Amino acid sequence: MKLPRQILCPDGKTEVEHTPDSSRARSSWVVRSFTNRLAEPLRRLLAGDSLGEAQVKAEEKKKDNKDSRAVSALKLEKRASEFGEMVVMKSEELDRIMVDEQGSIKRQKVEGAVHVVDDDQQGSSLQRRRRQLQPRGDCPYLDTVNRQVLDFDFEKKCSVSLEKLDVYACLVCGKYYQGRRKNTHAYTHSLEADHHVYINLQNEKVYCLPDGYEILDPSLDDIRHILNPRFTVEQVAQLDKNRQWSRALDGSDYLPGMVGLNKLQGTDFMNVTIQSLMRVTPLRNFFLIPENYQHCQSSLVQCFGELTRKIWHARNFKGQVSPHEFLQAVTEVSKKRFCIGQQSDPLEFLQWLLKALHAELKNSKNNSVIYDCFQGELEVMKETDGNTGDDDVLMEKSRMSFLVLGLDLPPQPLFKDVMDKSIIPQVPLFDILKKFDGETATEVVRPQRAWVKYRVTKLPKYLILHMQRFKENNFFIEKNPTIVNFPLKNLELKDYIPLPRKIEKSPSKYDLIANLVHDGRPKEGSYRVFVHRKSEELWYEMQNLHVSETLPQMVALSEAYLQIYEQHH
């Protein structure tokens, strides 16, 4: 015997099939469904029951609600890409609007209770999303910040794309990444490495990724000070009086302003030049306040100022500083004349650096902090042979400014002593300064043979002297080992160089603040510098990362190559 089948009708009810003909059962259900729908209106019509005004208004209101609900559904559909997933009511069916990764909208039928999202609920979702992006001070990932690996001395560019815009530093591993929005390198790194705290290298704001909210916590201020050291005018004024040592994170002690500089393969000539310029007080004070040069967009000026602030910062995480970013700017601006991995002359680098900084900082009167510190003036008298006869002499008088005074050393003796050892001559500084007394003539060959006399007519605040130790011939470069005897304090120039009357009353006494020395052969040697610390009246020897206190007598016994004297008031 064949059992009857149950048929699922479109209204959700089931009908039992009593005949083998399923089409007959379906037809009977359609007739009953149509009859049931018309039964109530027919009953009211036959009974003479008409709809009242209240019922008409209720029907109209119901229709208006349907229309407004449809409009809300369309609005939600348009904003589905912003919220990812929404639920809207359409007729009596519930649709789920989803946005896939390509941005296309998909609908999914939802069974169960009816849930309607209107405009008010949509606004609350938007407000909830905005609240999630508001700055917070209770980030749960602050304990993952690792200060030991943070190093902001390198060039600020993304480690993946090498871009320099919108770069963030991961405070967990110390690497640089670009961007913080979805699909950026920083965002991807936060998901892959589970590192969540990042700082913007430009505006110093700290964010939690991938959530995207800003972190406001005072415990991160020390990192901001390392990224961009700050000084007040009062702090700058007290630098030369401060005797306090600072302590790095590894427990080592260091002196602000006396920190070592990392050597980047053949860059010791740059390091000693930088350490020497850090002793020039007006130049240092100028670059410690960024507002003094904020109008200048030159990367060389900005990097030199940042390096100056890091050297003199008392809250460094390390006891040394890397000049990598500054050297990158030097390489770019000098068009690879001075670059990492290539040894150069400190004199050439010093002259180029001073002129490049002046060119970027000069005002309408062609003046800058560089010229205020180092510029002096010479009177030059040039005698050349005339073309009319042997006794005819042409005299030419002119004035020229200078940043560095070059001093000629006496030639090295050709003979050895009785012990068969080379004789190292010594010469007082006052003897080689006679070149600028206005009476001693110096022979020059280029552009034509002539005799030149020099006379100092204006003394700078900081006098740079250069001992010309290296001479290049057709075969090799020779180094003159002559020892120059010089005083560390109270170098009185007017006793050895006649000065014009208008500057006789101006200070002419100088104190040594930096002595740059060359050791070894001309091409294979290295450079170190002796610098003076004013707060303690002590001398320190510095060579790359090596910093140690030394005796004043050791400074005077060295083969001086460049010296910086400060005018004594």
Query: Quick one: how many beta strands?
Result: 30
- CATH third-tier fold name of the domain at 404-432 and 459-567: Cathepsin B, Chain A
* Global morphology: elongated
Low-confidence stretches: 5-13, 17-23, 78-119
The main sheet comes to:
8 strands, mixed
- CATH secondary-structure class of the domain at 404-432 and 459-567: Alpha Beta
What is the number of helical segments per DSSP (H or I, 4+ residues)?
A: 15
Subcellular location: Nucleus
Family: Belongs to the peptidase C19 family.
Main location: nucleus
Pfam family, one: zf-UBP
Give an overview in words:
The chain is of the alpha+beta class. Among the domains are: 6-39, no CATH class; 142-225, Herpes Virus-1, CATH 3.30.40.10; 243-361, Cathepsin B, Chain A (Alpha-Beta Complex); 404-432 and 459-567, Alpha-Beta Complex (Cathepsin B, Chain A), CATH 3.90.70. It is built from 15 helices and 30 strands. Strands 17, 21, 25, 26, 27, 28, 29 and 30 form an eight-stranded mixed β-sheet that branches. A five-stranded antiparallel β-sheet has the order 7-6-8-9-10, with helices on one face. Strands 16-15-20-19 form a four-stranded antiparallel β-sheet, with no helix packed on it. A hairpin with a 5-residue loop joins strand 6 and strand 7. Helix 10 (299-311) packs antiparallel against helix 11 (324-333).
Give a quick summary of the entry.
Helices cover 28% and strands 26% of the residues. Strands 17, 21, 25, 26, 27, 28, 29 and 30 form an eight-stranded mixed sheet that branches. The chain has 569 residues and is an alpha+beta fold.
